[in-house]
Amino acid sequence: MPRFQEDRTWNLQTTVFKPERSSRPIQYNIVTKWYRKPSNQNIIVHYHSAHPFYVKRALVRNMFRTARKVCTEEEERKESLEMARDIAWSNGYYTFPTSREASSGGVILRHGSTTIEGKTPFVPPFISDEVSASIKKCLKRSGLENLVAIVNVPPFNLKKRLIRNRIYDRLCTTSNCVVCPAGREGDCNMTGVVYRITCRVCGDEYIGETARPLHVRVKEHMYGMRRLKKYTALGSHRIQKHNGDDFEVTVEVVAQEPQVCARKTLEAFWIQVTDPKMNRREECLAITRELRPYIRLAFPHRL
């Protein structure tokens, strides 16, 4: 016995249980599961936040790993994982992959996935909760909720807005610019935008979209107007509404979207809602081309 224990007086009582009939005197059966305090709001880094993607991926993976490891029984493990999925869902982690589910509890945590539980993804831009709810109702009425998964393109986060609004990026270098006076300086250099041209004489409007710098597309419109090109929107408007007289226009950006499909969809929505007089409605065909692969799913009995 060590020296320091010999010099101490221990006041300990020991109880020894003797087994009876070759059985254990006490049988411990400890059951554990993942516990969250009632006061916990279950708020984690949101999926649409400006944090790096690897940070959000590691955070959610660790949450599912903890929920799995602290449980001793299979029933408690399922309950804990279900709680973790609810927390992930409430913070924007909606979709589910077809593989690598074990490490993340089924929540998708990587870019570039093409299928979601065997469903075909439909990727519209996020406009409002009402529009998203209407799309879901249409899929449900068509019986496609088990075949098509809606993946909304998120709007710009704070990081993208701050970078886009830097002072040294917003300089107007276009001579006789008709875009910046109606908006902010530097709007003429924006790319991937949906824009609106308004006639300052009669108030008629034109909605368009372009992936190029906006001032390049506007110059094409102005050229068609000056040359009285009938196949252009402004040229036709000048001939039909103003008898060939010149008129001034204002140009403003109504939306910005880098993805072609989402941008053309936004353009068609703006045309449908605002009903511009200069448009020929040919732009709405973009939605038809994008939704053409889903026609067989929507009307299988007609094809």
From TrEMBL:
Record-annotated Helix-turn-helix domain positions: 43-93
Matches recorded under SUPFAM superfamilies: GIY-YIG endonuclease (SSF82771)
PANTHER family recorded: REVERSE TRANSCRIPTASE (PTHR21301), REVERSE TRANSCRIPTASE DOMAIN-CONTAINING PROTEIN (PTHR21301:SF10)
Protein name: C2H2-type domain-containing protein
